[in-house]
Design brief:
Blueprint: H1 39-47, H2 67-77, E1 85-87, H3 106-114, H4 138-154, E2 161-163
Antiparallel strand pairs: 1-2
């Protein structure tokens, strides 16, 4: 939630509603203690549409984030608005061999691959694997954030995503 001030993709940071005090209702039943260090971040991310949790209204704060969950949160936080795009591969090829083209996460991965934000999983580079269900290390997340900042600074526009409608 601390990433801000994106030049090309982003809205001004002031449009993000920060702070736990603005929440009249707790967004998740397993994130109820306002004194935990992560409460404000989870509540802010939920209120801003960055995270939605699980169907049972839980967030599972102690569960490891996988690569696709981390990528989705990053894309949503940087206002890349993947929900307004549909993946259209110019070559007809998938960027990674282990992707399901019908999966909800497919546009996120295609966009991130095209923008240079996310590459193969650790150990998957020789096989062309993204590893959507693999755990996301702090190092991998740091790399994604860094590549997002670089792509934003460059003003690069996506080449394989076409806006719907």
């Amino acid at each position: 939630m601390g990433i801000k001030n994106f030049k090309y993709w982003g809205q001004p940071y002031s449009t993000i509603i920060a702070g736990a005090d603005v929440y009249s209702n707790n967004p998740f039943k397993d994130v109820s203690d306002k004194n935990t260090w992560y409460y404000q971040y989870v509540a802010s991310a939920s209120n801003n549409g960055i995270i939605s949790g699980y169907p049972d209204r839980t967030f599972k704060p102690n569960q490891q984030v996988n690569r696709i969950e981390g990528l989705k949160m990053l894309m949503e936080h940087t206002f890349m608005r993947i929900d307004k795009y549909t993946a259209v591969l110019l070559t007809g090829d998938k960027p990674f061999n282990d992707l399901d083209t019908n999966a909800w996460y497919y546009p996120y991965v295609v966009y991130a691959a095209d923008m240079g934000i996310a590459g193969p999983s650790e150990g998957g580079e020789y096989y062309g694997l993204f590893g959507p269900g693999e755990g996301l290390t702090r190092g991998s997340l740091s790399e994604m954030i860094y590549q997002t900042l670089k792509a934003d600074e460059s003003g690069k526009k996506p080449t394989v995503i076409g806006q719907e409608g």
